[in-house]
């Protein structure tokens, strides 16, 4: 999978915007991590999970990538259930490839 696979059709404006933001990061690695996760889960995230994903999407790609790879410790305020779901999702996708 190399790009967005789901349409934003039928999503509320908040989810549409977040889906776009997840696929349009700054570095391709983060597009693939966040974008794939959003494609798969955006319509099922709770309001709190959406808020957590929005906060994560505001972070620089280098920080996020470091948190995902374990190069940097994830700050407690960003080590949320949605971050852990995204990290687990990324590991499953990577294993399947």
Write structural notes for this entry.
- This protein has a single domain, classed as Orthogonal Bundle (DNA polymerase, domain 1).
- The chain is built from five helices and no strands.
- With 97 residues, it is mostly helical.
Overview features:
63% helix, DNA polymerase, domain 1, 5 helices, mainly alpha, 97 residues
Give me the secondary-structure topology.
Elements: H1 13-23, H2 28-41, H3 47-57, H4 61-69, H5 81-96
Helix pairs in contact: 1-2, 1-3, 2-5
Provide a compact summary of the structure.
By secondary structure, the chain is an all-alpha fold. It is built from 5 helices and no strands. It is 63% helix and 0% strand.
Tell the overall outline.
Answer: globular
Average pLDDT over all residues: 90
Radius of gyration: 12 Å
Spell out the CATH superfamily. Flavinator of succinate dehydrogenase
- Determine and state the CATH class: Mainly Alpha
Look at the helices and sheets and give the structural class.
Answer: mainly alpha
Number of strands: 0
Question: Approximately how much helix is present in the residues?
Answer: 55-70%
Number of domains: 1
Number of helices: 5
For this structure, the CATH topology is: DNA polymerase, domain 1
Order of helices and strands: HHHHH
Please name the CATH architecture. Orthogonal Bundle
Q: How many angstroms does the end-to-end distance come to?
A: 9 Å
**Low-confidence blocks of residues:** none
Portion in beta strands: under 5%
Query: Could you describe the largest sheet, including whether it forms a barrel?
Result: none
């Amino acid at each position: 999978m190399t790009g967005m696979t789901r349409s934003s059709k039928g999503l509320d404006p908040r989810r549409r915007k977040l889906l776009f933001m997840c696929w349009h990061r700054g570095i391709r690695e983060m597009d693939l991590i966040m974008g794939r996760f959003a494609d798969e889960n955006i319509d099922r995230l709770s309001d709190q999970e959406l808020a957590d994903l929005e906060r994560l999407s505001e972070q620089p790609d280098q920080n996020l990538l470091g948190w995902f790879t374990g190069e940097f410790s994830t700050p407690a305020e960003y080590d949320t259930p949605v971050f852990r779901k995204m990290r687990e999702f990324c590991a499953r996708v990577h294993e399947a490839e």
